[in-house]
Inverse folding.
């Protein structure tokens, strides 16, 4: 019995979301007395994949991500390995690829899951639905049972094993029809909210776009990414990439700090599963306080600069 | 240049969700066209306005889903097809199979979907549909240009954007930012009433219901989260004291310092 995990790499290392998927994949494999295997396009991560429990690393020389080539490569490995479970991290590519591969294999997918376990020999998953207003528990049948994991929901843990054995896969994907013309890179040095452990978000309480500097300064001091409410994105104060919520990104970092964000249901949909939530708002009735673990009723313009200084001091210690 | 827009009909995002068995309780719920499908529809209408052709809106759903088709017609879609069924009892691949079979009977160069149906938030149908039809796909699209026999689309990824080129026919899934959807005009609403909706059953499309409702993914329970009562609240009128309190929390509880 094999659990196969699709992994992605960046600068020769496994992405965090992939390490998380490997960790839960290993736990599922162990619980069923099976083995963890990984798929990658870079043999350089064999050692790291091994540390996260992979016994074998299937490596396809598939180049930069394109749906068609990766689907062909992964479907090939699935055919060879016959895994019982196939996991993808819920990254942009994972979510693009998982359903395409599933349709090729005539299999179902549980997407964006935050819990995975075996129940009566079936893969059982929990997924937030209706903007986190409910949780659906689903059984995935079929071989393989496929799921995409919600980033930050499964902590990455090494298992201390040695390097995974590399198995090269040759794939004939044909000429892909879709062509990658260019990748427009983000502003250098800016952390993205998708994978960040800490996010500092600003809302309309900032009054104007230039005041996002209050948010950026704190984010920079604490080592977090900058998030935003839709109201600020719509006002043109900040790019849509930063938007948290139903029509932005769903995030669940370890720490989420919201300042001047009212906490509309669509915003909460994107962040209420964060592990620790701090809210600063001058209105004691603001709905954001209902999900906050620590709420500060006060003026963000007075509190944020002092907080940034205090964080810097704490970091210097 | 013709397109098909797949629209799903979902509970209004402001709705209070109640549970009834393994499903949501639909009594009193207002249903809307899923917000991402509105971007998909708007893009298709703009394409038609620029290059001619038809915009067919397609939905797989119960009778109430016709309301969504009427709305789309009022905004500028020219044709509509309703495949009757209960998507809540199918899984995403079942839904994609229904849509694929319907689309094979419709004229199309571009297929537009939302990046995800709001509510169930699966984000699965678009790539599944593309695979079933053997078409290229570009997902989470924020900008689109359709030229002769090909399209150029911007795909949103973590903190960056890819510019991709694909030959037609192709599947595009819409992300917020693609466009600003228009409202229906009075003239549009009147015109929409005259369009006959082509209504089919799953069997009409030559499909076997047992494959559509075969439950590769089955919901075993649906639960509301434990009510969060809200945590500790402090007065921020002394910024220095408040900042120290926050740092203490971040260090001791979140362990993020
Ligand atoms: C279909 C749909 C999808 C949506 N998707 C999203 C989404 O993905 N993400 C999202 O965020 N929203 C989304 N929205 C919008 C959402 O409903 C809210 O309008 C939006 O989140 C409000 O943003 P805000 O909190 O910044 O602004 P406001 O609601 O205006 O809140 C500003 C807050 O700042 C506080 N404030 C003002 N001055 C200060 C000060 N000096 N110090 C401290 N606090 C201060 C105020 O008390 C207030 O609570 C969506 C809406 C719809 C209909
Ligand atoms: N029942 C349906 N009828 C028509 N289109 C649908 C249906 N379900 C999903 N879609 C389309 O598929 C997209 C993605 O939905 P989902 O994969 O369910 O999140 C939606 O935005 C719609 O464009």
């Amino acid at each position: 019995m094999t659990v196969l995990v699709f992994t992605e790499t960046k600068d020769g290392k496994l992405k965090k979301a992939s390490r998380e998927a490997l960790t839960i994949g290993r736990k599922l494999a162990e619980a069923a007395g099976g083995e963890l295997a990984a798929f990658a396009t870079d043999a350089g991560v064999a050692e790291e994949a091994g540390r996260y429990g992979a016994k074998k690393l299937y490596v396809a020389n598939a180049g930069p991500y394109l749906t068609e080539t990766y689907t062909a490569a992964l479907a090939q490995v699935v055919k060879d390995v016959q895994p019982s479970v196939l996991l993808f991290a819920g990254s942009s590519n994972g979510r693009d690829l998982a359903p395409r591969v599933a349709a090729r294999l005539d299999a179902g997918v549980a997407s964006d899951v935050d819990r995975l376990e075996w129940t009566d020999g079936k893969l059982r998953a929990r997924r937030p639905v209706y903007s986190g207003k409910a949780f659906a528990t689903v059984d995935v049948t079929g071989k393989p049972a496929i799921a995409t994991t919600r980033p930050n929901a499964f902590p990455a843990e090494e298992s201390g094993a040695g390097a995974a054995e590399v198995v090269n896969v040759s794939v004939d994907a044909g000429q892909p029809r879709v062509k990658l013309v260019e990748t427009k890179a983000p502003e250098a040095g800016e952390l993205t909210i998708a994978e960040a452990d800490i996010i500092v978000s600003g809302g309309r309480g900032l009054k104007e776009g230039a005041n996002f500097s209050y948010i950026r300064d704190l984010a920079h001091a604490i080592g977090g990414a900058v998030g935003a409410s839709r109201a600020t994105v719509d006002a043109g104060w900040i790019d849509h990439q930063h938007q948290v919520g139903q029509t932005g990104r769903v995030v669940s970092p370890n720490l989420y700090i919201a300042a001047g964000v009212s906490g509309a249901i669509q915003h909460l949909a994107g962040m209420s599963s964060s592990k620790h939530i701090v809210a600063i708002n001058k209105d004691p009735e603001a709905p954001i306080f209902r999900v906050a673990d620590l709420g500060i009723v006060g003026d963000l313009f007075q509190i944020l600069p002092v907080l940034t200084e205090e964080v810097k001091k704490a970091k210097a210690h | 240049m013709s397109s098909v827009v797949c629209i799903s009909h979902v509970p209004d995002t402001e709705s209070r969700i109640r549970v009834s068995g393994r499903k949501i309780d639909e009594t009193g719920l207002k249903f809307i066209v899923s917000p991402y499908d509105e971007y998909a529809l708007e893009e298709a209408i703009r394409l038609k306005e620029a290059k001619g052709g038809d915009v067919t809106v397609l939905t797989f759903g119960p009778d109430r889903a016709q309301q969504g088709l009427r709305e789309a017609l009022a905004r500028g879609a020219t044709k509509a097809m309703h495949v009757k069924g209960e998507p809540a009892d199918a899984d995403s691949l079942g839904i994609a199979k229904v849509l694929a079979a319907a689309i094979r009977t419709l004229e199309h160069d571009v297929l537009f979907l939302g990046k995800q149906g709001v509510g169930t938030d699966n984000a699965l149908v678009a790539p599944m549909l593309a695979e079933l039809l053997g078409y290229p796909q570009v997902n989470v699209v924020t900008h689109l240009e359709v030229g002769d026999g090909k399209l150029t689309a911007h795909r949103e990824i973590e903190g960056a954007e890819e510019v991709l080129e694909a030959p037609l026919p192709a599947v595009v899934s819409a992300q917020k930012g693609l466009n600003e959807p228009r409202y229906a005009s009075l003239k549009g609403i009147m015109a929409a009433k005259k369009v006959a909706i082509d209504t089919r059953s799953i069997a009409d499309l030559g499909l076997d219901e047992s494959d559509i409702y075969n439950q590769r993914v089955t919901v075993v329970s649906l639960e509301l989260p434990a009510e969060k009562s809200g945590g500790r609240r402090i007065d921020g009128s002394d910024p220095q004291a408040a900042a120290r309190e926050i740092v203490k929390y971040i260090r001791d509880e979140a362990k993020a310092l």
In short: Chain A touches chain B through 94 residues (CB under 8 Å). The pocket of adenosine monophosphate (ligand 2) is lined by residues B 6-8, 34, 36-37, 40, 58-61, 87, 92, 95, 99, 113-114, 116-117, 120, 122-126 (CB under 6 Å). The two ends of chain A are 49 Å apart (CA to CA). The mean pLDDT of chain A is 94.
